[in-house]
């Protein structure tokens, strides 16, 4: 579906995230021919820049991030960029923005993109609603990045506020995990191959593990992370979205609303955990100094703009249950952490053991077979099974049957931001998060946040390890163990 002529307004458009991620992504989409002839992009922000200075900044970022670009493409892209200096809380800037938009060539759609810290969302939406900026359905859309709210009540307040200015079909709440190719492949894999679906339930699956792990620390985002922590930053959104896709029922079709209807059923079936139960089924941790790939790295408390006595978690693991017919009794172990030994986001579906153990596995202890869906860094799907070891009479050997995205398609997957921005421009909301979805996931997450925020100490794990010992106890006391990312 071609993208119709557009004007895109990026609040916070000269910020670090926009310059490093958003503009290179937009440029990529443009240079791959996915943009229409007519488009204009205006950034609104607090930096005192004129169009020329802003274009030079963006030129610099694109030159760094896209070294293979064609010079005439870049010039042509930059010529459609504008910058408007203004404060988020001052009405006059929004009226100037409305005048600027009117001067743009005719566009069939207008998109607002909030690339600002979550704390500024309410101010900006209020100001848009109060100004002369257009908001009408059918033509205007708004893209809002995660985190959507800080807790359930914040998410509800924000939902009510956005709904006062925009209809649900105009709102695109972004969780970039949903734009990753392998995440979308979960549904294709499940529903296009008859072989797995009959065992994709409590009869065939012993347990599920989902890991969102990173080797990086919090970098220059200390201020943001101190207010957020791993539970809000990753668990409430990326982890619960992955869980919903793995566990949902087949939708009647792949229309946005049908898929979102199925995901919300999963989130609503999560067995609620009360504040009193949190410590029994979850674990937090914070990285201390250590080393990764032979390089020494500081602990979280030594990072820039982090309190030296901070108890903010950089690791979180939880065991949760989905009380549905399909999943009754199957534990889902979810974990996320910064400063793991490697970057790796994986979903493991561990199959039930056969009813009898006929083979010797003492020389080469065999893990139960499992399906490994590797979301990143290398998109893959592995079926981990046991085969007979050559010659040995009765010995098993673990092997992987592998699909590799790169080997099969000879290319890397399209970056998720590009996919999502283009989808929003085409009006396809399938890969965006709906209002009820956000509220259901916050409602499940809130007790975890409340309990762990009320503690005044936190277990540490050295950078370059898989989290604190408590995380291993969480799963090992049930006779299972974490299967580490590849
Ligand atoms: C973001 C989090 O949503 O996801 C970051 O705010 C995290 O803390 C990032 O680093 C991870 O994204 P990806 O795509 O690199 O796994």
From TrEMBL:
NADP(+) binds at residues 46, 146. Belongs to the glucose-6-phosphate dehydrogenase family. This is Glucose-6-phosphate 1-dehydrogenase. Substrate binds at residues 176, 180, 214, 233, 338, 343. Residues 9-185 form the Glucose-6-phosphate dehydrogenase NAD-binding domain. It catalyses: D-glucose 6-phosphate + NADP(+) = 6-phospho-D-glucono-1,5-lactone + NADPH + H(+). PROSITE patterns: G6P_DEHYDROGENASE. NCBIfam families: zwf (TIGR00871).
